[in-house]
Write a structure and sequence with these properties.
- This protein is an alpha+beta fold and 248 residues long.
- It is built from 7 helices and 9 strands; from the N terminus they run E-E-E-H-E-E-H-H-E-H-H-H-E-E-H-E.
- Strands 1, 2, 3, 4 and 5 form a 5-stranded antiparallel sheet that branches.
- The longest helix is centred in the middle third of the chain and has 30 residues.
- The protein is elongated, with a radius of gyration of 23 Å.
Length: 248
């Protein structure tokens, strides 16, 4: 009796599975495919008490990246578990045409995620450019106290966030022409911009270099964190994802 079927990805029927590579769990689960017409899902038995342990996160990610070497992949995020194989087959049958279209869209492409945060080491530039912050700083020096410190701290935080948001939009405008598609990510605490780009495999190095160049040009306004190349998580519709079950 297993705890369900762990689903890693959807791909075209006949795509080779990487040799010598297991899935999540300890020991690593044996991966296999179940198919419905032109599509297959890569699955394994779900381990008991599945949690986001580092070894399992890495195993999930490595398998997806290796699968992408063999052909287009609709990746599942970590922790997608279906009750049984029949449920997976039903989902493939119900959404097969949509999956086929999405596989075509992501073929030969990676995802690159870009996050922009307020620059935390640019107080000198902030004071030089923001007269209201300078005024509050000077007032706090003349009459130091709790309320003056609070007002100054709030003004600094607001200005840093505003500057990062503006710089993030410039970054977005600059990078968008180099991508096939753009997807906004979920809100992240303290993050002024969270966006993923769908980039041709052959263009990923150029894209990352451009992102670093733009980030460096605006380093007094934002700190940029780049992740990728990644599986195309943000460009897979919610219909492609089995509903997680207990413990996932």
């Amino acid at each position: 009796m297993t705890d369900g079927v762990y689903v890693y990805a959807i791909l075209r029927t006949g795509t080779a599975l990487p040799k010598g590579l297991g899935g999540v769990g300890s020991p690593p689960a044996r991966i296999r495919t179940v198919g419905q017409g032109p599509l297959e899902a890569v699955i394994s038995d779900a381990p008991p008490e599945l949690r986001a342990r580092r070894r399992d996160l890495l195993a999930h990610q490595e398998l997806l990246m290796r699968l992408m070497d063999e052909g287009p992949v609709l990746p599942m995020r970590f922790g997608m578990v279906a009750p049984d194989e029949e449920t997976v087959l039903q989902q493939l049958a119900a959404a097969g045409s949509r999956h086929a279209v999405t596989l075509e869209q992501v073929a030969g492409r990676f995802e690159i995620n870009v996050k922009a945060f307020p620059a935390q080491n640019a107080l000198a530039a902030l004071l030089a450019e923001e007269k209201d912050v300078r005024r509050l700083r000077d007032a706090a020096r003349r009459r130091p106290g709790y309320e003056a410190s609070i007002r100054l701290g709030e003004a600094v935080t607001t200005a840093l966030t505003r500057r990062a948001a503006a710089a993030g939009q410039r970054l977005l405008r600059d990078l968008t022409p180099g991508a096939r598609a753009v997807a906004a990510g979920p809100a992240v605490p303290g993050c002024a911009l969270n966006v993923s780009f769908l980039v041709d495999r052959g263009d990923s190095d150029t894209f990352l270099t451009r992102a670093r160049t733009v980030a460096d040009a605006h380093r007094e306004h934002m700190e940029v964190r780049l992740a990728g190349p990644l599986p195309c998580y943000s460009f897979v519709s919610s219909e492609a994802r089995p509903v997680p079950v207990g413990g996932a």
